[in-house]
Structures are given as C-alpha cells and as structure tokens.
Amino acid sequence: MKNSEILSHVDHTLLKAAASWAEIQELCREALLYKTASVCIPPSYIKRIAGSFPGLNICTVIGFPLGYSSTDAKVFEGMAALSGGAGELDMVINLGDVKNGKFKKIRKEIRALKEICGKKILKVIIETCYLTAEEKIALCGCVTESGADYIKTSTGFGTAGALIEDILLFKKHIGSSVKIKAAGGIRTKRDMIDFLEAGCSRLGTSSAVKILAGEESGDY
User: Fold this and answer.
1) Maximum Cα–Cα distance across the chain
2) Which of 136, 149, 181, 191 is catalytic?
3) Quick check: is 171 catalytic?
4) Which of these is catalytic: 74, 114, 152, 179?
C-alpha cells in the first residue's frame, strides 16, 4: 500500500491540552502537503485554522475526552464548531449511559448531533477500552440507527486504543452506511495498513506523517 493512499485515510491529529499555535500550524502545513483526509484539532483553534488555511478539512472533537457533558452542551459545542469552519465532528458518547443501559438516550444524543451536522460527517467515539463485547455490539446498533457516519474506537486518552478485534466486531454489527475509524495507539506503518485492511476508512493518529514522510519511497 502506497504511503499516499494511507495518508488519504488519516485524520492528522493533535489534541494534547498544551498544543501551541505553532504546533497546530505545522500540523496543518503537513496535512496540506501530504493530502491527509483532515486535521483533527481542539475546537479552540477552528476559526484560526479556517482563516489561515482555507480549503483544509477541519475535524474537531465534541464532549472530549470523557463524554459525560450533557447533550445540550454537546449540541452547543457542535454548532459552534460547525459555524467556525469545522467539516467533521468526532463526538464522545456518555459512558455512564452505557453502563446504566440507557441506549435510547444514547441514540437520541447521537441523532441530535447528526441533525446539526446535516451532510457534514459525524463520527461517534465509543471508547472501546471501557466496554464489554455486548456493550460494543449494542453501540454498533445505536450508531447505525441514529444515522451517524462513522463509529470510532477510541479517544486516545483512555486506558487503551484501537484493536483489530474491535474493528472486526464492528464490521459484523454496524449497518452498511456506517464506516469505521480506528484511533489510539496507531504508531507504525504496519499498524496503519493492518487497520485499513481490516476495514477502516479513517485512522486517527499523530504519527502517520512523521513515520511515512521519513521513508525515501517517493510514492507520494
């Protein structure tokens, strides 16, 4: 698999709390140079990126990283992000609702976010490291039934990141309209290829450009 093909599936990511504008600018320049699918950045930088890097696809996070803010707060945050120039939202579900079996509430929240997104992309982060297999399966149904575009494994801030076995589980239980994003712990070219071959359409990683740009392959 060519590096350029891999990078076209990458959400080039920088979500650390102390990310500086200089670091965000470098991320954006790399995304444009290597034609990544998007940059995934903190909401506070959306307007500045939109003004400084016109045409760049901006992804941001909602209810991140713990997911337990109210639905109203997530909707407000999402509306602000979209009006500022974001093209994609990665929302975190309320894990407490999962543990309490409140899947109807989860579906309602996802639908509320998808309603404000319209044709723009909504990805739903379910944070697999905290879930049982049964909960993951139930959430595949929630994501599908609520009209979201992607199910996403992880925030990268939990106790573990993406696992191939979760991608394979998702493939069995999501609807045909739902795509898969793996995130967290994707640190090598082999990891990237394995997740794409397993069925992912997007990869969330801060490492892809550094790893692939370091190869003298000339296949960009």
Assistant:
1) 51
2) 181
3) no
4) 152
